[in-house]
Design a protein that fits this description.
Layout lengths: L1 E6 L3 E7 L7 H11 L8 E6 L2 H6 L21 H12 L5 E7 L6 E4 L4 H9 L4 E4 L13 E8 L3 H17 L21 E10 L4 E2 L12 E5 L2 E4 L5 E3 L9 E11 L11
Parallel strand pairs: 2-3, 2-4, 4-7, 5-6, 6-8
Antiparallel strand pairs: 1-3, 5-7, 8-13, 9-10, 10-11, 12-13
Helix pairs in contact: 1-5
Bound molecules: zinc ion.
């Protein structure tokens, strides 16, 4: 793990990149910002490059999935369990933007695990029009901090790096850390959006399935959405596929979600605060 501070003073935001070693978009976008001499910040942002060992190995993780390892343990045998514990210390108290990429869709979207006022603001600042509540998945960074993860696009694609950079610049501008109306944001208002929220309620487990649908497009009841040989998985009720793919996860097709509506229509989550 290594850290960089962009700007002067005490960081007001943490940006975590490379939790998964095979998702380079966040680190590359960070490098673009660090190299941009024209970028002037009125505050400071902390960047955390999370799992360099997994990145150097070209793998998602070394021992266990870092984004399922929180809160972690400084004395654990697993590299990522120790890393999770250190990372939580490093970002302590800061809102966190956590950048990822995926095999399931090129369209970027945001994810969160608890809806607090700071999480809501981060969701609005990403400039992305879709957000997913994934509180059903335990052990994620976003269940331990006021954080938003962003799936920036397809793993290894230049488009994912561009999207990661755009989201970063949008968040910095919307947070008031850079001037609004920066050239990089031409044609796009840096500031709040009101994303449509989807809530994951189920994970579809199983190996070797071919995903037949399209993420964020409703699967009607009675429709087959995955196939393995002659066997089909059929929707017993309508749902929206999220992070579903043929080979994204080893033992799961992805998630079933329902559409909740615009973020502005949802109350803050006070069950956890
Ligand atoms: Zn990831």
């Amino acid at each position: 793990m290594r850290t960089h501070v962009l700007g002067e003073g005490r960081p007001e935001l943490a940006v975590v990149v490379g939790q998964h070693g095979d998702e380079p978009c966040g680190e590359r976008a960070m490098e673009r910002l660090l190299a941009d001499e024209s970028l002037r910040l009125s505050g400071a942002v902390l960047f955390v490059v999370a799992n360099e060992r997994a990145r150097d190995a070209g793998e998602r993780f070394v021992d266990v999935d870092l984004n399922r390892a929180y809160p972690g343990d400084p004395d654990a045998d697993a590299h990522e369990a120790r890393l999770a514990s250190r990372l939580l210390e490093v970002v302590d108290g800061l809102p966190v933007l956590d950048l990822h990429s995926t095999v399931s869709t090129a369209e970027p979207f945001a994810l969160y695990q608890r809806l607090t006022p700071r999480t809501r603001r981060l969701l609005e600042w990403t400039g992305l029009d879709r957000a997913v509540d994934v509180r059903t998945e335990a052990g994620g960074l976003a269940s331990h901090v006021d954080g938003v993860a962003v799936e920036c696009g397809r793993k290894g694609s230049e488009a994912a790096v561009d999207t990661a950079e755009r989201v970063l610049r949008n968040v910095l501008a919307a947070a008031g850390l850079t001037a609004v109306g920066d050239g990089e944001l031409a044609g796009e208002r840096a500031g709040t959006v009101d994303p449509t929220v989807f809530e994951v309620f189920d994970r579809v487990d199983g190996r070797g399935y071919e995903f037949l649908g399209e993420n964020f497009h409703e699967v009607p009841a009675g429709t087959a959405f995955a196939r393995r040989g002659d066997e089909e998985l059929v929707a017993d009720e309508p749902f929206y596929p999220v992070l579903m793919s043929t080979d994204g996860y080893e033992a799961s097709v992805g998630f079933r979600a329902r559409r909740l509506g615009p973020l502005s229509s949802l109350p803050d989550d006070d069950r956890l605060r």
